[in-house]
Structure formats: structure tokens, C-alpha cells
Amino acid sequence: MLIPGALFFILFRYFPMWGIIISFQDYNPFGGIWKSEWVGLRHFAALLQYDGFWRIFRNSIVLSMLNLIFFFPMPIILALMLNEVRKRAFKNTIQSIIYMPHFISWVVVAGITYLLLGTQGGIVNEFIVKVGGEPVNFLTSNEWFRTLIVSQSIWKEAGWGTIIFLAALSGVDPQLYEAAVVDGANRWRQIWHITLPAIRSTILIMLILRLGHILDNGFEQIFLMLSATTYEVGDVFETYVYREGLVGGNYSYTTAVGLFKSVVGLIMVMAANRLAKRFGEEGVY
């Protein structure tokens, strides 16, 4: 039973790590890894000296922190709400509805966003105009870009994220709730003193793993929503790698950018894990 999972990680996770070698080379696609010139840390130095480095670093961190503050708690809240539903048929129906956006591609999500919020024919702006307001440039405004990105993430992935927390909630001993009722605890007290402590370790592990992707914001969503007017707040490492790597052909340089992101993520995971253990939690390892 372990063989399919092991093969997946070996082929698609561990084997591709061999490619990070080119971040220390001036990679030549015709010569391959063995015939490419070694340049040491030159590409990493070039990244740190890049004029727009701090802009893309700031944008990546800000978007990740906004997702951490607003998106990360949403699956937990939804799982707690679903856990309180007693009618199984209704609960299953709600779960199916909130799971469905996960299977919609980001292209479709971006299209829906443009249909709703566009200044020309957008449903929301047409409503604003009809009530006497002025059209709002949701799609080309720096002030609205990050809000749109976080909102899209919540709508698309929050329901799917409840799976892990609902699984953790299923392991809570029902006798604890019965004892709490005998002691006179209402539903809010039961959630605060029984449900949340029971899934605390799961929440912490998911938080630590999320911190490992602190510089990852996803390419497709950002790329589809990004425009020339929102580059100042929307240009992140993924879009920068696309321009320099796939469009510009600087494979070694962009591999160095990816390795830099991974090292930052590893440091964040190790720091968060050590902090968790200091507070008496198990952590990831």
C-alpha cells in the first residue's frame, strides 16, 4: 500500500531536487548539467542586488500574511460550524456545496471575477451605478488587488480545507460533551473548552506547514489577475520567475530564486516548530 505514495514522492518530489544544481551554474541547455560552467553563488548575489527584489519580497510576504490572517482561520470556522449541524443530510449537502469551488480552475475563477467586478458590464459596478454611485476600478486598483486575491482564495479553497479539521473533530470523545452538558456548559463553552483544545495540535501542524510556504502565493491566480496598473502590489516571486525563466530563458537564475524561497520556508518551519515545542506542543517533527 505504501508503494504508490512512495513512488510519487520519489519521482515528483525528491528526484527533481537534482535540478537545483543548475542554480550554482551558468546552465547551458545544449551542454546539460555536466558541461555547464560553475559560477557559485553569483545568481543569488544577482537576486539580492536586483532593483525590484524588495518589492517582490514585500508583495509576497504581505499576500502570504493576509492569507494567513484571513484565509487560514476560515476552514477551522467552517469545520466548527459544520460540526454543530445535527441533520446529516443537510450537513452533507452543505459540505458538497462548499467543496465544489476547489474543482474550478483559476481561469474560470478569474473569469467570474471579471464578469462580476469589471467596470464595463460588471454586475457589481452596474448595481453601484444604478443606486447612484460611481464605478469602482476593482480590477485595476492597487487598493483592491490584495483584497481580491484573498477573497478568491477563501471562496475557492476554504471549503476544501475543512476536510482535515472535520477529520480531527470526528476523533473527539462524545463523552466529553456529555460531561460538559451535565456541568451546565452551553454550546459556546463546549466549543471553547472541548472542541478547540481537541484540534489544537492539528491547527498548529497546519500553521507550521503553511509557514513553510510563506513566499509561495501561487502563480496561476496572481498571473491571471495581474495587470500593468497593479504590478506595484501584485508582482511576486512566481510572476518574476515566469518572466525571467520561461520568457527570458534565465534558467539558472530562476532556479536560484526558487531555492532562495525554499530556504526561507525551511527556516520558517524550523523556527515555528521549535517555538511550538517550547510551548509544550508536539510540532511537525
Secondary structure: elements and pairs:
Layout: H1 2-14, E1 25-26, E2 37-38, H2 42-49, H3 53-71, H4 73-83, H5 88-99, H6 106-117, H7 123-130, H8 142-169, H9 174-182, H10 187-198, H11 200-211, H12 219-225, H13 231-234, H14 237-247, H15 251-278
Antiparallel strand pairs: 1-2
Helix pairs in contact: 2-15, 3-8, 4-8, 5-8, 11-15, 14-15
InterPro entries: MetI-like, MetI-like_sf
Keywords: Membrane, Transmembrane, Transmembrane helix, Transport
Transmembrane segments: 7-25, 61-85, 97-117
Please estimate the helix content: 55-70%
Whole-number mean pLDDT: 90
CATH H-tier superfamily: MetI-like
**What is the CA-CA span between the terminal residues?**
23 Å
What portion of the residues fall into strands of 2 or more residues?
A: under 5%
Backbone CA Rg: 23 Å
- What best-fitting shape do the alpha-carbon axes yield? globular
Q: What kind of sheet is the major sheet?
A: 2 strands, antiparallel
Give the count of helical stretches: 15
The tally of domains stands at 1
Work out the number of β strands: 2
Low-confidence stretches: none
CATH class: Mainly Alpha
Query: Which topology does CATH recognise?
Result: MetI-like fold
Secondary-structure element order, N to C: HEEHHHHHHHHHHHHHH
Subcellular location: Cell membrane; Membrane
Organism: Paenibacillus lutimineralis
Protein name: Sugar ABC transporter permease
Membrane topology: Multi-pass membrane protein
